[in-house]
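Students often ask what a holo structure prediction actually looks like on paper. The answer is less mysterious than it sounds. You provide the chain, you provide the ligand, and the output is a string of C-alpha cells encoding the 3D arrangement of the protein together with glutathione.
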Amino acid sequence: MTYQLLLGDYAYSSWSLRGWLLFEKFGLSRAQTMVDFSDKSVGEQLAQFAPARTVPTMITPEGAVVSDSLAIGEELASRHPEAGFWPSEPKARATARSLAAEMHSGFMALRSDCPMNLRLSYQDAAPSDAVRDDLARLEIIWSHARDTCAPTGPWLCGDYSVADAMFAPVAARIAGYNLPVGPEAQSYVAAHLADPAFRRWRAMGMVHGATLPWYAKDFETRPWPGPDAMNATPVETGPAENATCPYSGKPSTHFLQIDGRTFGMCNAFCRDKTVADPEAWPAFMALL
Ligand SMILES: N[C@@H](CCC(=O)N[C@@H](CS)C(=O)NCC(=O)O)C(=O)O
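The corresponding C-alpha cells follow.
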C-alpha cells in the first residue's frame, strides 16, 4: 500500500500544486487521482473519500483522510523525518513553520483577486490596494526568513521546505499577474519558476484538461516570464529513436521532434507534457 493523492486541475488548482510538490520535492511515491474542474463539484467527485471535499487530499496507506495541504506537509514530515520537510535547525524550522502557517491562513486579497492560472501571464493586472498590502507583507516575511535563516541557496529557510511549497503558487501569481515586488522577492519568484518540479507541474497544466474561461481575466497578456522551453513539436508518425517510453517503459506510440530527432512516448499526455517543457523531464533529457 502507498499513499493516494487526490489532486485538482494542474493549471488552476493552487492548493493541489502545494500538495503535489510535497510529494514530488521530497521523493515520495504515491498513486494519483485527478479531479476534473470542468465536471461536477469537487465534493461530488470526492464522495467515495468522504469527509474530503477539497483537493489536495491525501489518503494514508492505512486509510486516514488528510484533506488539507498543511496537514499533509506536517503528517508527511512526521512519517518521513529523514526527508527534510522542515529545516533541522530549530530556529530555521520554527521560522519555516510560521511562514507556512501564515500563507495557509492569509493573503486573502491576493488569493481571491489573482487566482492561479498557469496558462496565462498578464502585462498589468492593476492590483488593488489590498493586493499591494499582501505583497508588502510577503516581502517582509520573506526577508525576515532570509535574515533569520541565512540560506545559501534561493529557498527561504535553507533547503527547500514545506514553507517553499506553500509559496510556490504565490510565486506563480506574482509571475502570472506581473505583480510589483522588489528584486529580492523577484529572485525568489524566479527560483520557483525555474524549479524543475514546478516546471513539470506547469508543463502538465499546459496540456491537460480544458481551458476554463472563468479563470481568465480581461488584461493584456504577455509571455510566461519563466525559463524558455526548448523547441519541440508533436508529430504524427515515428519511427522514434527510442522503442520504449522513457516514463513507463511501454512501447513508443506517440511522437515528438526536437533538434530534428524523433522520440516516442506511450501516450498523448506524456508526449504533450514533454513537448510543453522538455527540460523539465529528466528521463526524457537522459534520452536526448
Ligand atoms: N485548506 C485547504 C484548501 C483546499 C482548497 O480549497 N482546494 C480547492 C482547489 S484549489 C478546492 O478543492 N475547491 C473545491 C471547493 O471548494 O468546492 C488546503 O490547504 O488544502
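Residues 133 and 258 are 44 Å apart (CA to CA).
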